[in-house]
Design brief:
This protein is α/β, with parallel strands linked by helices. It has helices at residues 19-27, 63-67, 71-87, 110-123, 132-136, 140-149, 164-177, 195-203, 241-246, 275-288, 306-320, 333-336, 343-357; strands at residues 4-12, 34-35, 48-49, 99-104, 155-156, 183-190, 232-240, 253-262, 297-299, 329-330, 359-360, 383-384, 389-396, 400-407. The strands form 3 sheets. A 10-stranded mixed sheet has the order 5-4-6-7-1-8-14-13-9-10, with helices on both faces. It has a two-stranded antiparallel sheet with strand order 2-3. Residues 1-408 form the Ketosynthase family 3 (KS3) domain.
Length: 412
């Protein structure tokens, strides 16, 4: 089986519009959550979100082109363009038939759907925008990226709610591992901070009503009351090892394991016994050929909802047994909120940063740890820690579980 490494990264996030800026801010424990500014959210009962800030789409495309896409596609193209530049790959230097794109979105063009339904209701069906469908459908981040970079290999989008990006990275890993591709752009993109997005999740009582950005996304805290909506995109270039070495590529880390399964329990709540997510973690560890004592850091799904954090704690214990108490765990959603279908991709970058820097990012809002969440969640500030293997957990509505295992690159 072929080995798979990460040779490029790109990101547009609430804590920076490049992968490097995001990594520095996440390690420093900065907070990207603030009062909602995209629209007047007064009537929703929700005050804060983790919005992308100071983003200029014209750095990546013409203004006319951007207007014909929903923002999730625009964010995706920006992150993918950065990742390709970072990897120093191009259509001229690779067999484009073996260059793929697997970039997911949990929801797709939600703002476009909202705006065009309102327009149809007010002005009639003949006034719906001609680009409505290609702006709205969830596969178009992947499709637009493939067009942008000239990738003619596999091009798909996996929709598993909040597990989407991790599934995308995992499936890209397997595709390269088994010889179907030489390189794949993998990740996720999401842009749901809009009236219907916030209102819909608020109606589900999934979002926190907290007004203080520093006490809003507080995973594993006794006072947690829901997640904070985030937005943005992150894309990795996954590449076959020999292909990367032959062209002298910089290697950030190695993907060595992947797990994917389903709780088959409830449409929104995880199984409280932790068995689904726990078995998913074990799948990733088994493929990586490691045991619990080899795991150096776990990037938890850690949404800050009452149901997730306790169940995930149980899942981590299920998978890691007695070692669970010895392993640092953190939720970077405490800083960037929940990017839904893009969450696993930004969290993969956080894991790669931990591997590179031997530094574990913090769970910044954690002040009053829930007694039922009794593991080491790296509260408030990050810490130096030797990191050899990381697990990144993503758990989605519908019972979808996805976990990837990443390994430090030591040049061998």
């Amino acid at each position: 089986m072929r080995r798979v490494v990460v040779t490029g990264m790109g990101a547009v996030t609430p804590l920076g519009n490049t992968a490097e800026e995001f990594k520095q801010n996440i390690m420093a424990g900065k907070n990207g959550i603030a009062k909602i500014s995209h629209f007047d959210a007064t009537e929703t009962g929700i005050t804060v979100a983790a919005e992308v800030k100071d983003f200029d789409p014209t750095l990546y495309m013409e203004k006319k082109e951007a207007k014909r896409m929903d923002m999730f596609s625009v964010y995706g193209i920006a992150a993918a363009t950065q990742a390709m530049a970072d990897s120093k790959l191009s259509a001229e230097t690779i067999d484009v038939d073996r260059l793929g794109v697997i970039v997911s979105s949990g929801i797709g063009g939600m703002k476009t759907i909202q705006d065009q339904v309102i327009r149809m209701d007010k002005k009639g069906p003949k006034r719906v925008a001609p680009f409505f469908v290609p702006m709205a459908i969830g596969n178009m981040a992947a499709g637009n990226i493939a067009i942008k970079v000239g990738a003619k290999g596999i091009c798909t989008s996996i929709v598993t709610a909040c597990a989407s990006a991790t599934n995308a990275i995992g499936e890209a890993f397997r595709n390269i591992k088994h010889g179907y591709s030489d390189a794949i752009l993998a990740g996720g993109a999401e842009a749901t901070i809009c009236e219907i997005g916030i209102s819909g999740f608020a109606a589900l009582t999934a979002l926190t009503p907290a007004t203080d950005p520093n006490r809003a996304s507080i995973p594993f805290d006794n006072e947690r009351s829901g997640f904070v909506m985030g937005e943005g995109s992150a894309v990795l270039v996954l590449e076959e090892l020999e292909h990367a070495l032959n062209r002298g590529a910089k290697i950030y880390g190695e993907v060595v394991g992947y797990g994917s399964n389903c709780d088959a329990f409830h449409i929104t709540s995880p199984n409280p016994d932790g068995s689904g997510a726990g078995k998913c973690m074990l799948q990733a560890m088994d493929e990586a050929g490691i045991s619990a004592k080899d795991v150096s850091y776990v990037n938890a799904h850690g949404t800050s909802t009452p149901t997730n954090d306790g169940a995930e704690t149980t899942a981590i214990k299920y998978a890691l047994g007695e070692e669970a108490s010895n392993i640092p765990i953190s939720s970077t959603k405490s800083m960037v909120g929940h990017l839904l279908g893009a969450a696993g991709a930004v969290e993969a970058i956080a894991c790669l940063a931990a591997l590179e820097e031997d530094f574990v990012p913090p769970t910044i809002g954690l002040e009053k740890q829930d007694e039922a969440c009794d593991l080491d969640y790296v509260p408030k500030t990050g810490r130096k820690h030797e990191v050899e293997y990381t697990l990144s957990n993503s758990l989605g509505f519908g019972g979808h579980n996805a976990v990837i295992c990443l390994k430090k690159w030591r040049g061998e």
